[in-house]
Amino acid sequence: MGRFDGRVAVVTGAARGIGFGIAQRFAHEGARVAVIDLDESAAKKAAAALPGADKPKTSHLGIGCDVSDTASVEPAIERVVSELGGVHILVNNAGITRDNLLFKMTDEDWDLVIGVHLRGAFLMTRAAQKHFVAQKYGKILNLSSVSALGNRGQANYSAAKMGIQGLTRTLGIELGPFGINANAVAPGFIATDMTDDTARRLGIPVEDFRKMNAESNPVRRVGTPADIAAAATFLCSDEASYITGQTLYVDGGARLD
């Protein structure tokens, strides 16, 4: 028996990186998973690669969806319910970066990042919560970041990720009476394609960039998608039913220094 047998989990931005790691963990523990991504072909490919994808009772679903667009989000959730038989868990992971110093940051840089991270989490949650409320059960997990505490060159990203924490606390207050838990995970440095792209943009070899970040926290290693997936699945499990509105920092103790 898996911890999520009979559950349907929706994970946004799950075609790669942290999102795919979370989707893998849910599938490994018995959930049927809807992989949501802007790139539908990538979403379908990722869904087909999840544990249990070859078994009818645990088949998964890949859906193309722009999480910042209501007209895209609502049909995506309805498709999950129709094709997978319901929805019980929502992980708002989709995100992008458009880093720049404030005086160089464009309106588009700001709007795109806020739109995907913060508006996307709002739209996906609004679409899913009506199903959660009706069944008196639901788990919401939002992805924040240590950058919520401020990071040079990331005014847009930091604002969005701190906004996620405020959204999470408010969801905990509003939805708790309906059997719904809402929490957030704030990752530190995680080795993904996104952070590798940052290294290349800065002109730093990827391995050097990872080593530098590993040396900046007490556990002396970088995080992996599996580290975030472990925290995410715990907070979305019934074992965490008395936890809501919280943000868990998964950063190797970086904030302790």
Describe the structure.
The protein has 257 residues and is of the alpha/beta class. It has a single domain (8-188, 223-251), classed as Rossmann fold. 45% of the residues lie in helices and 14% in strands. The protein is built from eight helices and seven strands; from the N terminus they run E-H-E-H-E-H-E-H-E-H-E-H-H-H-E. The protein has helices spanning 17-28, 40-48, 70-84, 107-135, 155-175, 193-202, 206-214, 225-235; strands at residues 8-12, 32-37, 61-64, 89-92, 138-143, 180-187, 247-250. The protein has a seven-stranded parallel sheet, with helices on both faces. Strand 1, helix 1 (17-28) and strand 2 (32-37) form a beta-alpha-beta unit. The longest helix has 29 residues, at 107-135. The protein starts with 7 loop residues before the first strand and ends in a 7-residue tail after the last strand. The mean pLDDT is 96.
CA-based gyration radius: 17 Å
Shape: globular
CATH topology annotation: Rossmann fold
The structure class reads alpha/beta
Question: What do we call the CATH homologous superfamily?
Answer: NAD(P)-binding Rossmann-like Domain
SSE arrangement, N to C: EHEHEHEHEHEHHHE
CATH C-level class: Alpha Beta
What is the topology, as strand order, of the major beta sheet?
3-2-1-4-5-6-7
| N- and C-termini, Cα separation | 41 Å
CATH architecture annotation name: 3-Layer(aba) Sandwich
| Low-pLDDT regions | none
Strand content: 5-15%
Q: Give the number of domains.
A: 1
- How many beta strands in the DSSP annotation? 7
Overall pLDDT confidence:
96
Largest sheet: 7 strands, parallel
Q: In which range does the helix fraction lie?
A: 40-55%
Tally of helical segments: 8
